[in-house]
Structure formats: C-alpha cells, structure tokens
Write a structure and sequence with these properties.
The complex is a heterodimer of chains A (about 200) and B (about 130).
Chain A (H helix, E strand, L loop, with lengths): L6 H12 L3 H23 L2 H18 L9 H23 L5 H5 L5 E2 L3 E2 L13 H16 L3 H12 L4 H8 L3 H26 L2
Antiparallel strand pairs in A: 1-2
Chain B lengths: L2 H13 L4 H13 L1 H12 L2 H6 L1 H5 L5 H13 L1 H20 L9 H14 L5
The chains are: A mainly alpha (about 200), B mainly alpha (about 130).
C-alpha cells in the first residue's frame, strides 16, 4: 500500500495533517483506510473487531503524526500501525481463551523415518492453473486453509508472508525470540502445505 | 538398476519398503556406479529431516557455505526434498496472493466514526 499518492501529494497531505486540518484527516482516512481495513480484516476475521481495530489504528496515527518523519512512506507507516492495532485486539482475545494449538499442528507436519527420510514419497505440485476461475477457487481454498490453522500459527504466517514483516519485526510483534518466530512461521507454512496438498492433487495435471 | 531408479530406490531403501531383491540391486548399482555411491553418501550426511528443518534458512541464504553445499548435494539426489521444496515455495507464493482482492472504499458511517473519534480525542478542528 505504498504508492497510493505521489511523493508530492504525500508531502502535502503530511503538512496538512501536522497543521491539524480536518480536510487532511478525512483525506488520510479515505485514501489509506481501505488498505488498512483489509489488513485488520485479514488478521481479525471478525468484521466488527476489524473495524474497531481500524478506528484504533487511525487514532494512533493521528496522535503520532506530529512525529512522522518522511523517511518512510506514509502507506508503510500506516500499514504497521494497522498491524499493531490488530495485534492488540488479538492479544485481548487470546487473554480470554488461551490457544496454543501446537499439538493440532504437529499432525500437519511431515513425518520422517529411519535415518530421517520422508516417511512417504513426496509428489511435486507442478504448474498451477492459469484459468482465472480455477485460480480464484484455489485462492479461496488457500484462505480457508490459512484460517483453519491454530491461531498462533495463522497469525505468524499472515504477518510474515502477507504483511511482509521481517523475522526481527515478527519476533518483536509476537514477543518471542527471532528463532522462535522463524520456527513458528516454518511450521505454519508446512502445515498449510499439507492442508493444500489434496486440493492441488484435485487440480491434477 | 539405472541411476534414475537408484535415486528413488535409495529412499525406499531407507523407508524399508524395498524387497530383498531390490535392495540387492541397489547395492550392486552403488558398487558399479561411483556417482550414485557418492550421492548416497551425501544423502546420508544430510537427511531429509535436516534439509526440511533448515529450509527457511536455506531459502533466505543464511546457511554457512559448507552446510549450503551439503543441502545442494542432498537436493541433487533426493526427489522427495526437491518435490517438498517446490511445494513449500508454491505454498508461500499462494499465501502472498490469496488475499489480493481490490480494497473497497470504506463505508461512509465508518469514515464518520473515525473522524468523530478524532475530534473527541483531539483539540477540535482547525
């Protein structure tokens, strides 16, 4: 969501915001709101929570705009704020019902035997369909598979592979070590791969 | 047994699914073919489990050069790991595109709610 405005438009908007202009605030919300809402919706699944997080994100941005420096793009800055607002909501949710899900996930990881060879032969996936309808169906299947992952793994995968946080940023966001963050993402990807395998096989060559 | 069959059979051997005759053919091929014997050694120094465990580091280019070479040797002989690597990469690529739907404009009520919260939070409009 980095290139919604030209550099000049962005500089102008930032100046308006720093001056506290109501028009500037509205323009910020209308320009960046849709992409930020897509982030909170991906992360929170529940639309009401997502819109709540979006409001919190904009409040945080309005409060911090004074300190915004043009070193990063406005879109990138707002993206991180939206991610953080969604994470805060997730944490509040987690405090209510603790989910770990590592046992559930274990079953989706590959199995090895003997000296450490795959317990069963692995099949290449080959080319994916280019037909738009089949592609759309596959996207739906991928979203459903991601949403079915145990929560800590779903969140780690989203943050790393969709929101494109670095390993270090991810570790900080999750409050774990960099190594633990990497392992969590790797396990999540492996589980997703297992979940998608039958769908890919259905597509056939 | 030819070299292509050897690559597959060596994995079946480790999985314990070869018949005694096939195991004998495997051994015979390894004795006759130095390339396959070397590949089998490579396979034994990095097993599939090790390869998969360090896959992200490998993809990000963070492995030590020696370990990197061991991985490459393993990949050269292991059809399972080649297939796994390809599907793992595809899963990442699919994840990245799965949510790419055009963002819709915010509902007016939501825009108004956000701006109202700002006014309540800040010092009012300029």
């Amino acid at each position: 969501m980095g290139t919604l405005l030209t550099r000049d438009e962005e500089a102008e908007l930032v100046a308006e915001l720093k001056a506290g202009s109501a028009r500037g605030y509205e323009r910020l919300v209308r320009t960046f709101g849709p992409a930020m809402r897509a982030v909170t919706r991906r992360m929170l699944k529940n639309d009401e929570d997502a819109d709540d997080a979006l409001q919190e994100a904009f409040l945080a941005a309005f409060r911090a705009i004074e300190r915004f420096e043009a070193r990063s793009a406005l879109g990138t800055w707002l993206h991180r704020i939206a991610v953080n607002a969604a994470l805060m909501k997730l944490r509040a949710r987690q405090a209510r019902g603790r989910e770990d899900g590592s046992e559930e996930l274990e079953e989706l990881l590959p199995r090895f035997v003997g000296l450490g060879v795959f317990a069963s032969a692995q099949r290449a996936w080959g080319e994916l369909p280019e037909d738009p309808l089949a592609r759309k169906e596959l996207c739906g299947a991928v979203r459903a598979a991601i949403e079915s992952l145990p929560e800590p793994y779903r969140v780690a995968l989203l943050l790393r592979d969709i929101e494109e946080l670095s390993n270090e940023e991810l570790a900080e966001a999750l409050g774990v070590t960099v190594n633990a963050a990497k392992i969590r993402v790797h396990r999540a990807r492996q589980a997703l791969r297992t979940l998608l395998e039958p769908r890919i096989a259905e597509l056939g060559p | 047994m030819n070299c292509a069959r050897f690559q597959v059979a060596v994995h079946e051997h480790y999985r314990g699914t070869l018949t005694p005759e096939e195991s004998a053919a495997l051994e015979a091929h390894a004795r006759a073919c130095p390339a396959c014997a070397a590949l089998r050694e490579a396979c034994e120094e990095t097993c599939c489990k090790d390869f998969v465990a360090t896959l992200p580091e490998w993809l990000e280019g963070n492995l030590e050069p020696a370990e990197q070479r061991r991985h490459e040797r393993h990949l050269a002989i292991c059809p399972d790991c080649r297939a796994y690597l390809e599907s793992y990469r595809t899963a990442i690529a699919l994840t990245a595109t799965a949510f790419q739907t055009p963002a819709e404009p915010l509902p007016e009520a939501l825009v108004r709610a956000i701006l109202a919260r700002r006014r309540a939070d800040g010092d009012g409009d300029v």
